[in-house]
Design goal:
36% of the residues lie in helices and 18% in strands. The chain is an alpha/beta fold and 439 residues long.
Length: 439
């Protein structure tokens, strides 16, 4: 049974679907909300990742809020559930315009929109400017989408996707978390983005395809201004840097730290993303510590030098060793992220990784199964020389429930399962005398 809403509303409802990583807010949707609100439109975010709503409750919220547009964030791991949400809502509220955006749309817009005809429009790339232009276009009554960069739309049973340009992120409004329904700001860990894009070519990573290979950075003063505003608005005491490459410009990272110290923000913060071993020095780490940084994570990926060299990361394993030692000496926690299933991986290489990890003396570590994302070199390699074992539109690389998504020549499902078990249950390595001696 469909329900008709009042047609003159221009309210926008953005939905973050359920995923594995709880207690984290969608920074992408908060940026979209900030842009929509700055353009003069009302917007709300429905956080279905951290709140469980019944179908009846969601239905009533839509009736009460009366949105003209519903936008749903689509990551590869949540693509199926995102489509299901849109399908359910479309059956009840067919007159609402449904827009899908996010990483998976940027990677697979054509395929996803063909499979899910309930979706009216797609947004590829960074969507702040695109969404605002789309809202204005809809408000004007125009059905001409040809001049909106980054829009995917249906045209005579065909799909068309307009090219897009990455925005100047220094000109974007700050993210808006006050638009999140039922938001609890208790112990709020503020997600901070100081740059977008990454010039490196890691074969497993799709950041360059989504946010571009060109690194675009905000001015340090603007970053600290956002933190000051967030501290006042949300009474938060902790933030986390979400960049894909925070320390690419070491001097800029130092300037941000100096400004945090100068303005006496007195905030603790993590940097569990965007730090490379070859883009750290002692001065930066000491400044990060003084500015309140308590924990840094490095993407180590593999402790087997042969496997590490296969991933085109652009740094050496020795850079990782040097960085870990410096981080530990600075008094900051050091966390390591590893990937199982990289080219050249095996039971023996996994054992090398575990021995390497144990010798590093990390504060914490996490092993993740490789997911061959569309468009990546790994994705292409699996397509050519292997096979998918499951629909990856529902597979998490961060997960507590092991699912092997692929196998490839020389690396069977059984071998990958054994490698993950070795990495997660390291009792076999206790007391071994053949640990790698790190220099």
């Amino acid at each position: 049974m469909s329900i008709n809403l009042i047609k003159d509303s221009m309210n926008v409802l953005l939905i973050d679907p359920p995923g594995w990583q709880k207690h984290s807010l969608s920074l992408g949707l908060a940026y979209l909300a900030g842009a929509v609100r700055a353009a003069g439109f009302d917007v709300q975010i429905l956080d279905m990742n951290n709140h469980v709503y019944s179908d009846e409750r969601i239905k009533q919220m839509v009736i009460d809020y009366n949105p003209k547009i519903i936008g749903v964030s689509v990551k590869t791991a949540t693509a199926n559930v995102s489509a299901q949400i849109i399908r359910k809502l479309k059956n009840i509220f067919p007159e609402i315009i449904y827009v899908a955006g996010g990483p998976h749309i940027t990677l697979c817009a054509d395929e996803f929109l063909r499979e899910n005809k309930e979706i009216d429009l797609g947004v590829i790339g960074e969507g702040e400017e695109t969404l605002v232009k789309l809202i204005k276009n809809i408000k004007s009554g125009s059905k001409d989408n040809t001049r909106i960069n980054g829009i995917c739309y249906r045209e005579n049973e065909n799909l068309a996707c307009n090219v897009y340009e990455n925005p100047d992120i220094s000109k974007l409004p700050f993210p808006d978390f006050e638009s999140v329904r039922d938001m609890d700001f208790t112990d709020f860990r503020y997600p901070l983005l100081t740059s977008r894009g990454c010039p490196h070519g890691c074969i497993f990573c799709c950041v360059g395809l989504i946010a571009g290979k060109k690194w675009r950075a905000r001015e340090p003063e603007d970053v600290v201004k956002e933190l000051l505003q967030a501290k006042e608005n949300y009474q938060m005491s902790l933030f986390e840097i979400m960049d894909d490459n925070f320390t690419l410009d070491v001097s800029r990272a130092k300037k941000i730290c100096r400004l945090i110290i100068k303005r006496k923000l007195n905030l603790n913060w993590w940097c569990h993303n965007g730090v490379r071993g070859d883009r750290l020095d002692r001065e930066l780490l000491n400044l990060m510590k003084k500015a309140g940084c308590t924990s840094i994570a490095l993407g180590i990926e593999s402790g087997d030098e042969g496997v590490f060299n296969n991933i085109n990361k652009g740094e050496k394993l020795s850079d990782i060793v040097r960085a870990v030692k410096m981080i530990q000496k600075s008094g900051i926690r050091c966390v390591g992220y590893f990937i199982v299933g990289l080219p050249g991986d095996s039971v023996e290489s996994t054992k090398k990784s575990v021995r390497f990890q144990r010798e590093l003396g990390l504060s914490d570590y996490k092993y993740n199964i490789l997911v061959p994302y569309p468009g990546t070199k790994i994705g292409q390699l699996v397509k050519e020389k292997g096979r998918l074992l499951t629909d990856i539109k529902g597979v998490y690389h961060f997960t507590d429930s092991l699912r092997i998504p692929f196998e490839i020549e020389g690396l069977s499902k059984e071998t990958l399962e054994q490698c993950m078990q070795l990495a997660e249950n390291q009792e076999w390595a206790q007391g071994e005398n053949d640990l790698i001696k790190i220099k």
